[in-house]
């Protein structure tokens, strides 16, 4: 089973009610102001259907959006291509990023970093970002916390049901990897179409992430609790990192 194929076409319907993208983007731009980041070139990694991209694009001269899922990029392009948006959409693996240019701001939001399961791939990902970052640029990304993946999601089962979409979400936790098996039933006329997807996320401890960041050549500027000005707690579910090239 592949992830973010048919799911891409109902992603916004299911996810958008839980995420305030405007507030996230506002916090990101506030940090850019505080750190005096030049608003010329912006790169959104694992952009999905372009929700964060769309909130930030008007603040930069040039915007690039990268995702590994062609279906997610199709949704993003359909949604954002108009309104005078100047966005270059690229289908690429973020651990093998090769855009031949550098950026003032790079973001990777909504726990996409957790989808990278191996240390070697995580190092390649961070190295790729470092190579695409201008000297005074910043990289902002978030992770599902170790607590959330192991204690909240863990080996649990969830379900969702409305008039148009029903899904069953079963999780299996082993060796800090949460395998998520999702079965969807999407209404089409009088019938429901079934499709299945599997997603896997790794539960990283902060110490693991921060050791690799420093090894690659990043300096950690700040950490946030879910894009808010709050300290990280033991039960924090989303941890946000702001990093830059080490001086």
From TrEMBL:
GO terms for biological process: methylation. GO terms for molecular function: methyltransferase activity. It holds the Pfam family Methyltransf_25. The keyword Transferase applies. Transmembrane segments: none annotated. Keywords: Methyltransferase, Transferase. This is Class I SAM-dependent methyltransferase. Residues 43-137 form the Methyltransferase domain. The keyword Heme does not apply.
């Amino acid at each position: 089973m592949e992830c973010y194929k048919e799911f891409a076409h109902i992603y916004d319907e299911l996810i958008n009610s839980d995420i305030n993208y405007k507030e996230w983007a506002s916090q990101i731009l506030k940090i850019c102001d505080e750190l005096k980041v030049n608003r010329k070139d912006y790169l959104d990694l694992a952009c999905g259907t372009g929700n964060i991209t769309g909130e930030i694009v008007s603040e930069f001269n040039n915007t690039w959006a990268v995702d590994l899922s062609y279906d997610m990029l199709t949704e993003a392009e359909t949604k954002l291509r108009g309104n005078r948006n100047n966005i270059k959409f690229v289908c690429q693996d973020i651990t093998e990023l090769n855009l031949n240019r550098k950026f003032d701001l790079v973001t990777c939001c909504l726990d996409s970093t957790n989808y990278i399961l191996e240390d070697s791939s995580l190092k390649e990902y961070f190295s790729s970002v470092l190579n695409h970052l201008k000297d005074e640029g910043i990289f902002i990304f978030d992770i599902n916390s170790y607590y959330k993946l192991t204690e909240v999601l863990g080996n649990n089962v969830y379900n969702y049901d409305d008039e148009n979409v029903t899904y069953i979400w079963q999780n299996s936790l082993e060796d800090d990897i949460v395998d998520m098996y999702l079965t969807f039933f999407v209404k089409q006329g009088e019938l429901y179409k079934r499709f299945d997807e599997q997603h896997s996320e790794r539960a990283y401890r902060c110490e693991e992430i921060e050791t690799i960041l420093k090894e690659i050549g990043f300096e950690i500027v700040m950490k946030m609790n879910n894009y808010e000005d709050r300290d990280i707690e033991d039960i924090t579910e989303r941890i946000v990192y702001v990093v830059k090239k080490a001086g």
